[in-house]
Amino acid sequence: MAAPTTAHKVLSWGVDGNPRPLGRATGDPRRPGLVGGLPDMLVSVAAAGHSLAVDGAGALWSWGRNDSAGGGGGGSAPLAASGQLGAPRVGPAAVPAKMAGTGAGGLRFVAVAAGRYHSIGLTSDGAVHTWGLNDHFQLGRQAHNESGAQCDGGAGCACADVAAGRVAGLPSVKAIAAGRYNSLAVDERGRVWTWGLDSCGLAEDGRRIGQPPRLVGGGLGGEVVALAAGYRHWLALTACGRGPLGLCIQVALTARLPGFGRGEPWGPAVALAGGEHTLVVATLGGQVVAWGIGAPEPALLEGAPEGMRAVTVSGAHQHFLAIYEGGAARSEPGSSASSTMQGGADELVSLKKVPAEVRAAAPDVFAGLAPLQPGLRSPCFHNTSGHLRCLPYFSIIGVSKCGTTDLHHKLLALPSVVRTANKGPHFWDEVHSLQSYLENFDGVAAAAAADPCAIASDASSNTFSYAIIGLRGVANTSVPLPVVHRAAQPRTRLILLLREPAERMHSAFWYYGCMHGLYQRHGLSAAGFHAFAQEEVAIMRSCLQESSLVACATREWGAAQQLIKGVYVLPMVAWLAAYPREQLLILTLEELRQDAEGVLAHAAAFLDLAPTKAQLAAAARVRANRGHNMRSGVPRCGGARDPMWEQTAALLRGFYAPFNAQLADLLGDLRYTWRAA
Fold first, then answer.
1. Does the domain spanning 2-343 belong to CATH 1.10.357.10?
2. How far, in Å, CA of 199 to CA of 253, rounded?
3. Quick one: CA torsion of 180, 186, 190, 194, rounded to 10 degrees?
4. Which residues of the chain fall below pLDDT 70?
5. β-strand 50-55 against 42-47: which pairing, if any?
6. What is the pTM of this model?
7. 140 within 8 A of 147, measured Cβ to Cβ
8. Choices 3.40.50.720, 3.20.80.10, 3.40.50.300, 3.40.980.10: CATH for 356-673
9. What is the DSSP string of 159-218?
């Protein structure tokens, strides 16, 4: 057994005959001992008959057996060097050795999985690489026979590869798993791909074995967030802990395993592990449930540490390991050839993937986060004290005075969306501690115990705009806000509300004037707004005569902030450079006012929510901020606002027109010219 610690070191224990798979030459093999010869910063560990580890530089380290004796080869003679260590050596490796061509200047791995005689690695670009024995096509590609000729693999074929080779035909992958003769990957959309000897998931063409990766047909009822592989079977867990799926033992396929999920006997599942003929699940309630050949019904694992909750389980060669709150571990006899999902994109912060300069831009953030708790829709994790902390599942990142508060309250009316202590904590554009930010989402952490689908949002309306200024209250930072944001929350979903810029600026003038007493020297009137607009336009036009738009927006933010906030194309470029377009939903206030129910349906689909028509209609009727935008003692704030003069509108729309055109071109949508306005 090999397991990582919070200090990013590896402990091993178990059978240590010949070969010596523990990677240490001293100490009682029955008790955990430190594996020597490894770097301090380890980010992924996997074990079967051999063990693999990835360090913070992306280099792969391996030790243990390197042959295929004991069942490999499908009838052919076993290979003395089947290559699962990534080296041509004959005989086992008693201590860890670095795999050639990995780390700086080579393949940079972020996760690994160990099968019985083969290995899988996931690189930082979402590609899957395999090496080792290919007797059942588990490499997903051609390998080489002992004479060096290319071969496809298959039973009776001595086909293997020492060098890592990329598996073709896969989209960008976020997690991997390996069984005895099979391999699996989960893509960024949460879909499962399988190759090798797989008795469980039927491919779309009905085959159970094949060289190229095959997308599992029929879907699994939701985004896969955890995966375990065994002898020839696997088990998947979808978002919200809605039950393990795809179970098959002795080639028996079960579409959904009963008993797991909200309102079911065992409750939601949060972690999985697989063995040769057995499976283990950790539940949201902290129980460990096991079953398999000889014990066909799930049963509670007895002897758990009293008063402690299991937070995850893992499988290794003939072992299962349960980790409890506070770091207590318990191992149980299991069966051979098992692997739990090793993930990249869903492991909340991964020092393995975050460049040093990005970590340096927000060191407290990256030091305070940890790998995600599987089975929950929200991105939650256990901190060093064992408490569950959560980040927002989605963020309404702006823009202020474009309807963000109204949309926020409408979405709160949908099922599973939880109210937070502060709608807009402004963590990314002001100076706040990570602790206070996480405490804002304690409500969703508590709600997740009963509803694994519970989610919450950060509706800080200045997050989008501040991308052109700096990060967390500090201007002119070397690393842009969106880059740090995505490094900390790679799977978050972003909602952006825009509005015709002149109307947005008019609304901001009255809101900040009445709520915060600003702009009093202009006077809160149509004439005052005209003077305010003239002043900010003059400041920007003067600057633009000698400097770039980016330089002027940064330099004049304090003097012309409300005008600059309407130049949406500037921060849009920065956000789209950091996030894939599919993670950003762009809406307009005009659309929200015209068809609130339709906009909510669009947003719900984007968030993977499934409200009924009645729930959407009720949410659309929610109104926010009515009667709450007045400040006592401020003249002109007790009644209706003065409409904007036509000459003011013409001035502002003339200024914004070229930038709106750039935005429309960037997004490929003429709606963002607002020409009808």
1. no
2. 8
3. -60
4. 1-47, 71-76, 147, 153-157, 198-211, 217-222, 231-232, 239-258, 261-263, 276, 293-296, 303-307, 315-320, 325-353, 374-375, 625-635, 638, 676-677
5. antiparallel
6. 0.67
7. no
8. 3.40.50.300
9. -EEEEEEEPPS---EEEEEE-SSEEEEEETTS-EEEEEE-SSPPBTTS-SEEEEEEEBTT
